[in-house]
């Protein structure tokens, strides 16, 4: 695992300012990546400390002495009381998707978006797409690419985040494995390819359609401004 969400994206996630769809994508990566989980936990703790300090400063500026005494009394009662028994937590089973005759387990963060009877869209029996959620122009999909397949070269009218869930692929820049989180924009033209012996399942989030830049696939650009998976 070599590619991760950048710091600003993790910070937005920790602060709760990230949009819902990209939040799901980041949460899915965090489930797969201990390094980013630790970094996000530290960011959340920092945000919590900052909020607590702000609340304490505000309270001290406005509270009367009697209110301070009442607050101290309440804290003493809380610490003196017995802590409630913590419920036993059960680890949810990872959901499984069925595509192209394969059964592939995906992170639990996607559990509410996938179902056993999901209807995949097929592109020539080689590439399969499953729409998970859409919000305005932002689309979140699962994308399955069979072994030995090359996606026509394309760019993006907006941004595309790709999280590899299973297998791997390569493009003109590098090779990507399970857990890698890649962010692309209109400055990048690439053609993802799978190895002859390895398929790939990805979680993709697009803010605008794909725009094909070479070959017959450019005909898809005639339909509107491009193509969503």
From TrEMBL:
Alphabetical list of InterPro entries matching this protein: Anti-sigma_ChrR, Anti_sigma_zinc_sf, ChrR-like_cupin_dom, RmlC-like_jellyroll, RmlC_Cupin_sf
Pfam families named in the record: Cupin_7
Residue ranges that the Swiss-Prot or TrEMBL entry lists as coiled coil: none
Domain ChrR-like cupin residue range list: 117-206
Protein name: ChrR family anti-sigma-E factor
């Amino acid at each position: 695992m070599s590619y991760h969400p950048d710091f600003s994206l993790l910070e937005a996630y920790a602060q709760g300012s990230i949009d819902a769809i990209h939040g799901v994508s980041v949460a899915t990566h965090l489930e797969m990546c201990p390094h980013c989980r630790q970094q996000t936990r530290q960011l959340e703790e920092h945000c919590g400390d900052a909020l607590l300090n702000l609340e304490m400063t505000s309270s001290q500026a406005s509270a009367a002495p009697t209110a301070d005494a009442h607050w101290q009394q309440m804290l003493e009662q809380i610490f003196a009381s017995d802590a409630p028994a913590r419920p036993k937590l059960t680890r949810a089973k990872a959901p499984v998707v069925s595509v192209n005759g394969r059964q592939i387990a995906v992170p639990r963060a996607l559990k509410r978006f996938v179902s056993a009877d999901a209807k995949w869209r097929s592109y020539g029996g080689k590439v399969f797409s499953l729409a998970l959620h859409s919000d305005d122009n932002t689309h979140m999909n699962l994308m399955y690419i069979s072994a030995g397949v090359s996606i026509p070269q394309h760019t993006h009218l907006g941004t595309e985040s790709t999280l590899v869930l299973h297998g791997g692929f390569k493009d003109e820049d590098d090779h990507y494995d399970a857990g890698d989180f890649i962010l692309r924009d209109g400055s990048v033209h690439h053609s993802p390819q799978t190895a002859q012996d390895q398929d790939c399942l990805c979680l993709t989030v697009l803010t605008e359609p794909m725009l094909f830049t070479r070959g017959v696939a450019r005909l898809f650009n005639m339909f509107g401004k491009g193509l969503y998976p």
